[in-house]
Design a protein that fits this description.
Elements: E1 3-10, H1 14-22, H2 31-35, H3 38-47, E2 51-56, E3 71-74, E4 78-79, E5 94-95, H4 98-110, E6 116-118, H5 125-135, E7 145-150, H6 160-175, E8 182-188, H7 205-217, H8 219-222, H9 227-234, H10 242-249, E9 256-266, E10 269-277
Parallel strand pairs: 1-8, 2-7, 2-8, 3-6
Antiparallel strand pairs: 1-10, 3-7, 4-5, 9-10
The protein binds fe (ii) ion.
């Protein structure tokens, strides 16, 4: 049977990907951020998962504002890298896992989550930056990926509680897949940041720290945060954090936090990377 072995929470700041693509990660500005990624890369390389589910949001790359699914799953054999205005990032094409993806689609929809199915979909920085952060710059990504998109760009995004329940349904779906696959699930986006308006540049270290603490110790309590609190405390783009609840919902109630890296600033955001071991409970 397939099982989820770990969860990864990871910011998907586009400038982080650009720094890797341009070879500027050793500069004084970026070095402290990237130094904190090394232990996580080592940990993931040792874990060597068979497949990753990456929960992220599309930033009007695959989808314009004409159609915005709340939840969408990519079932393709591969996903090209989106051109976000500067040409596609020079990173490997993302290989999919259609067999598990179709199983997830069927299981989730029959479990009453009305997923949109994407047979073709370019993937943008929301998905590729967390891959770069956790896998470095390989010639090919070390595992296939199933993209799951969540709408956080057009009001109303789903609630944290609904996202958590989707994660629980993903956990049930993975557990009912009859191949012995070790699956890692990513929740991406966040942490506190606001890209426009009078509060552009907002960072809230206290909120971010409490959120990270709660992700391990009180995930259900964390799902009760309303959208207005994300907006007020974590900025207008901080609502991306609802995607972390999908990842957390897919894990056991008790998990072990094996790694945490939090750094300010990364571009104009607070960036975090956290690894939760789903096989070692605390
Ligand atoms: Fe984003």
């Amino acid at each position: 049977m397939a099982k989820i072995v770990a969860g990864i929470a990871c910011s998907h700041v586009p400038a982080i990907g650009a720094a890797m693509d341009k070879g500027t990660t050793d500069t004084p500005y970026w070095q402290p951020l990237f130094a904190g990624y090394e232990p996580a890369r080592d940990w993931l390389a040792k874990l060597a998962p068979d497949v990753a589910i990456i929960v992220y949001n599309d930033h009007a790359s695959a989808l314009s504002l004409e159609i915005i699914p709340t939840f969408m799953i990519g079932v393709a054999g591969e996903f090209p890298i989106a051109d976000e205005g500067f040409g596609p990032r020079p990173v490997p094409v993302v290989q999919g896992h259609p067999e598990l993806a179709w199983h997830l689609a069927e299981s989730l929809i029959l479990d009453e989550f009305d997923m949109t199915i994407a047979n073709e979909m370019p993937v943008d920085h929301g998905l590729t930056v967390p891959l770069s952060v956790t896998c470095g710059q390989p010639a090919a990504w070390p595992f296939p990926v199933i993209p799951i998109c969540v709408n956080v760009v057009q009001y109303p995004p789903p609630t944290g509680a609904r996202c958590f329940k989707l994660g629980q349904a993903i956990s049930r779906a993975v557990a009912s897949f009859d191949q012995d696959l070790r699956v890692v699930i990513y929740g991406t986006g966040g942490m506190s940041h606001q890209l426009q308006g009078e509060r552009a540049g907002l960072i809230n270290r206290r909120f971010d720290t409490e959120f990270l603490d709660g992700l391990t110790r009180d995930p259900i309590g964390l799902t009760k945060i309303p959208h207005t609190e994300y907006m007020r405390e974590a900025g207008s783009e901080g609502v991306e954090l609802v995607m972390w609840h999908v990842m957390r919902g897919a894990l056991h109630e008790r998990v072990s936090e094996v790694y945490r890296h939090y750094h300010v600033p990364a571009s104009n955001t607070a960036a975090a990377l956290m690894i939760l071991d789903n096989e070692v409970t605390t």
